[in-house]
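Milestone 3.1: sequence recovery, worked example.
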């Protein structure tokens, strides 16, 4: 499937960042502490971002020095006759309170960071991404998603291409995918979304999803609109959404497997018009392939091809050797296909 990406747990990252801020501002910080902090910052971009935001908030607190010192002075006077253990506990309490304030101030900034999380693939590339709640998605060739996760919502914006989602069950936080002019909602299921030039294709392999019009904008629709407008797509079904129309059809086992075969880096065709096969394989190669013969575009083609430039090359060789098609290369990135020479 390619490289595996895993998003960190937001709460765990916040806690670790707050611990590091507290440690770096302690009187007994050591060179070893600085080295371990640098290692942690390099481990993931989220770590560095969280630490920077927390440090900024800490600096803002320090600018309020007179107020902090006044409160501290009063507390120290009240605790002057207390045992040392009480003084240590008070100091620990002040530190904990300050760290808590930083974490609270950081939360919004951290979720803004998550809202900007973007994953994209190049032509012929595929990646797998694990999300903080255990959900995951596989991203197909030349695709892009923006992840918007927060304590209240799970939203994925499919900006280009195709992705297969495996959703962890959470009835309190529906999982939304925004693609083209459709919102797709799931709670705990598995489904594929393909943003095509002519519309949105949704294929469900497990459970049920519901699809609604996305004309309301970049936010999921209201519960009332969703309740009266959603179209259900169940396991073994495929929906084609174009304009206001949703066409849902049942797939047999072979059709379902072919629709999702790209996740195993293969494409299966059975008596598919050559024009459709070429269009699909061009998603996985930088080659621009043109079938110049209208009759040849309707030629039924079957076979298995890799989701890579090699897959397109295999098709060209099959057409040339098996059907006598004329394959002409124009420069390095364009190929034309014509029928057999008379």
């Amino acid at each position: 499937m390619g490289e595996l990406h895993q998003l960190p747990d937001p709460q765990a990252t916040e806690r670790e960042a707050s611990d590091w801020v507290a440690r770096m501002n302690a009187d007994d910080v050591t060179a070893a502490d600085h080295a371990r902090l640098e290692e942690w910052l390099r481990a993931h971009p989220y770590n560095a971002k969280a630490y920077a935001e927390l440090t900024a908030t800490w600096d803002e607190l320090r600018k309020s020095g007179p107020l902090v010192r006044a409160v501290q002075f009063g507390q120290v006077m009240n605790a002057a006759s207390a045992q040392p253990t009480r003084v240590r506990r008070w100091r620990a309490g002040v530190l904990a309170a300050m760290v808590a304030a930083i974490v609270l101030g950081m939360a919004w900034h951290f979720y803004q960071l998550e809202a900007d999380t973007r994953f994209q693939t190049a032509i012929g590339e595929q990646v797998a991404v694990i999300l903080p709640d255990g959900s995951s998605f596989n991203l197909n060739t030349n695709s892009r998603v923006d992840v918007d996760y927060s304590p209240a919502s799970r939203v994925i914006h499919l900006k280009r291409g195709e992705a297969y989602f495996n959703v962890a069950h959470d009835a309190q936080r529906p999982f939304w995918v925004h693609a083209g002019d459709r919102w797709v909602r799931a709670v705990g299921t598995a489904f594929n979304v393909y943003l095509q030039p002519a519309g949105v294709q949704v294929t469900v392999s497990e459970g049920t999803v519901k699809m609604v019009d996305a004309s309301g904008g970049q936010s999921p629709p209201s519960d009332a609109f969703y309740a009266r407008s959603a179209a259900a797509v169940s396991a073994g079904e495929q929906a084609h959404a174009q304009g206001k129309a949703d066409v849902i059809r049942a797939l047999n086992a072979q059709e379902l497997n072919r629709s999702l075969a790209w996740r195993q880096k293969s494409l299966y065709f059975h008596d598919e018009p050559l024009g459709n096969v070429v269009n699909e394989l061009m998603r996985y190669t930088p080659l621009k392939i043109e079938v110049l013969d209208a009759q040849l575009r309707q030629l039924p083609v079957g076979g298995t091809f890799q989701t890579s430039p090699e897959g397109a090359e295999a098709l060209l060789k099959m057409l040339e050797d098996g059907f006598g098609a004329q394959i002409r290369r124009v420069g390095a990135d364009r190929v034309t296909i014509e029928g057999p020479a008379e």
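The first strand starts at residue 4 and ends at 6. The two ends are 44 Å apart (CA to CA).
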